[in-house]
Specification:
heterodimer; A: about 220 residues; alpha/beta; Methyltransferase, Methionine Synthase (B12-binding Domains), Chain A, domain 1; Rossmann fold; 2 domains; 5-stranded parallel beta sheet; B: about 475 residues; TIM Barrel; 8-stranded parallel barrel; 20 strands
Chain lengths: ~220, ~475
């Protein structure tokens, strides 16, 4: 049943085509297909295929990002239908993501967000130049599993410590794990501020996040 | 005796990398980007300036769209030639298009300790020691802040770093570590103290400021304001794009050149609108992101091509260029470091980039290595020699010596040989020993480079900064710290 439709869904992810992915999602809803079935038997097969291709060196980062974007487009269409049916996707965890105050560098942070979403995390991306109270407040509001903090400058990197201290003050640690990243971040810095993990790139960040929620 | 500075001049090699038509197309695309896509200037001060000059300004997104003639006219007031001054005039660096000057790279966060070889976080004392060694080396013409003084408060760290450089070297200081107007005002005050007052600073800027853009098509507000403060005082300012194919720039080289060019010339135009005629420079270190991780690579063929192409753009706008070469992505001074740093530096030099950044880093400008610093100087010396080309005249054709030796002899004992032999390159760190000697001693270029760095640090006494001046710098920093 619906084999062709599911194949087309997987293909839309492999092609990194958000428009096609969204259109197929609408088609599935019209046909009364359970959104979770569409995701698990259709789109996810595409995500897995691109992931495998990446692992063996046949696919590159832009293809992962485009697959992630296509997946996001499909889920956005399917989400209301899932809510209507009272079902929800099994997510790996909730991540509050931000570039710290005083720092406007976005791309590494956003790339990590895309990769985490594609891997099955629910990501709350607060953007750049985000003050400590806003990050901590969001973590409490959504009951986050992980807070992920980016900084590109040695002068703003110190804010990563401020966030950890604020989480400590509110008694949110160690339940909320903290990941840090950015060019000046080193393992020594991570140890000093008591963060739980760091990675130099977005692929590694996914591995760390999975490990922190016990899914790695 | 101030150390002499070894600059590349009167180049004998040339490279055709972009035709005049190519440059015109990149320029047109750039103006179209600035006028129609816009560039983000997240500073109300900057937005006010743009608005006063008729650009379209969006106060919510901070995006500025400026018409082509506004940009082109503003850039016309940038001086094509000026001088970066040193504490002593013998070490001044004319930015005249006919010199390539080498600097130290910056701004890293870790250092491989010169004595115990361990990697550790950087501190102010590292800035001091690198400045002393750079002061000695004739290959190094000017300083960047090589390492971040992470043992000092973030708000005024940039000032302590500058003081450390001026107290340990007479050469020009170009800081890339001052990111806001408060710190910039103090840095300018320190520079004025060194130069002997504001008017003298304008004539002989002992300080220049380098700010990074935020690719794609953006700037940092604090950086813009720091640059405006410096420009008002006649301190040369430059903006560096590090747009990288795939992530912060298009996958294609031409597209990444256009994006970076839009960032740099829009910022230089802003500075000229605010302070017409103030000295500015173009700065760039574009690269290609790694296809697998998206990471900054600090090397590869795209990097080397950008190194040469960007100077063609800077020449088109008649401003000096500060070009990122060296800065390998390698983790230690190895094959990769040699390939990256040789090719990137050769390409930047053959195009006559005015300033080269810079020596000493591993892992994409993160980890300082004294061995790499000295080995990079050797790469510069090789390129320096190559840039002299092959002079052909009666003397260099050596006909008299050839006649004297004839078939089957050798040239070792010829007067002509004695006269010219010192023109040949003598390596400091290349291993040209017999195989058995290498096998028996088991050492190599890295060891020799480290030994040399230690020797310089232990023996070289830089010309001290006048004690009163030193105190004055301390007073300015203390005032900045009180806020």
């Amino acid at each position: 049943m619906h084999t062709e439709l599911f194949q087309a869904m997987a293909q839309s992810i492999i092609d990194g085509d958000p428009d096609a992915a969204a259109q197929l999602a609408e088609e599935a809803i019209e046909k009364g297909i359970d959104p979770l079935t569409a995701i698990n038997q259709g789109y996810v097969l595409g995500v897995n295929f691109v992931g495998d291709q990446f692992s063996c060196g046949n696919a590159f980062l832009p293809e992962l990002v485009m697959a992630g974007e296509a997946m996001k487009a499909a889920v956005a269409i399917l989400e209301p239908e899932m809510q209507r049916r009272g079902s929800s996707r099994q997510m790996l965890g909730k991540v509050v993501l931000a570039t710290v105050q005083g720092d406007i560098h976005e791309i590494g942070k956003s790339l990590v967000g895309t990769m985490l979403s594609a891997a099955g995390f629910q990501v709350f991306d607060l953007g750049v130049d985000v003050a400590v109270p806003k990050i901590v407040g969001k973590a409490r509001e959504v009951d986050a599993d992980i807070v992920a903090l980016s900084a590109l400058l040695t002068t703003t990197m110190v804010r990563q410590r401020d966030v950890i201290e604020a989480l400590d003050d509110l008694g949110l640690r160690p339940k909320v794990k903290v990941m840090v990243g950015g060019a000046p971040v080193t393992s020594e810095w991570v140890a000093e501020i008591g963060a739980d993990g760091y990675s130099e790139d977005a692929i590694g960040a996914v591995e760390i996040a999975k490990r922190l929620v016990g899914a790695g | 005796m101030p150390g002499k500075i070894k600059s590349i001049t009167n180049p004998a090699l040339r490279l055709q990398i972009l035709s005049p038509e190519d440059v015109q197309r990149i320029h047109s695309a750039t103006l179209e980007i600035i006028a129609q896509v816009g560039v983000r200037f997240p500073s109300h001060w900057a937005l006010d300036l743009w608005e006063q000059h008729g650009a379209q300004v969006d106060r919510e997104t901070f995006i500025v769209k400026a018409p082509p003639d506004l940009i082109e006219n503003a850039l016309k007031s940038a001086p094509p030639v000026y001088t970066l001054a040193a504490r002593i005039p013998e070490q001044d660096l004319p930015m005249d298009g006919n010199h390539v000057y080498l600097g130290t790279d910056g701004c890293g966060v870790e250092v491989i300790d010169l004595y115990n070889g361990e990697r550790r976080r950087s501190r102010l004392q590292d800035v001091v020691e690198i400045a002393r060694i750079a002061d000695y080396l004739e290959e190094i013409a000017f300083h960047w802040v090589a390492l971040s003084a992470q043992d000092y408060p973030a708000e005024t760290r940039g000032l302590h770093e500058l003081r450390a450089i001026w107290e340990n070297s007479t050469k020009h200081a170009q800081t890339e570590s001052v990111y806001n107007q408060t710190e910039a005002r103090a840095a300018v005050e320190m520079a004025a103290a060194i130069a002997g007052g504001r008017e003298n600073l304008r004539k002989r800027p002992v300080l220049s400021l380098m700010q990074c853009t935020a690719s794609p098509l953006g700037h940092d507000g604090g950086s813009l304001e720091a640059a405006l403060v410096a420009a008002e005082a006649g301190v040369p300012v430059g903006f560096m794009t590090m747009a990288a194919c795939l992530t912060t720039g298009p996958a294609t080289l031409a597209g990444t050149l256009a994006v970076g060019n839009a960032e740099v010339i829009s910022a230089l135009a802003l500075v000229q609108l605010a302070h017409p005629g103030s000295p500015v420079f173009y700065a760039a270190a574009q690269t290609a992101s790694d296809l697998r991780t998206g990471a900054y690579t600090g090397g590869g063929p795209e990097d080397y091509l950008f190194g040469a192409a960007t100077n063609v753009l800077a020449d088109f706008y008649q401003v000096p260029l500060s070009m990122g070469s060296f800065a390998t992505g390698a983790k230690q001074p190895n094959w990769q470091a040699g390939v990256d740093n040789s090719l990137s530096t050769f390409m930047a030099c053959v195009a006559m980039s005015d300033m080269l950044l810079g020596v000493g880093f591993l892992h994409g400008s993160r980890i300082w290595s004294y061995a790499q610093m000295l080995l990079d100087c050797e790469i510069y010396n090789i390129v320096y020699k190559m840039m002299q080309g092959i002079p052909v005249d009666d003397e260099t054709l050596a006909m008299e010596a050839i006649r004297a030796v004839g078939p089957g002899g050798n040239f070792l004992a010829q007067k002509h040989t004695r006269k010219h032999m010192r023109e040949l390159f003598v390596p400091q760190f290349m291993d040209r020993r017999p195989y058995n000697v290498w096998e028996e001693q088991g050492d190599g270029p890295q060891d020799w480079a480290l030994a040399r760095a230690r020797q310089i640090l232990e023996k070289h006494q830089p010309e001290p900064l006048d004690e009163k001046l030193s105190k004055e710098l301390g007073r300015i920093i203390a005032a900045a710290e009180r806020g």
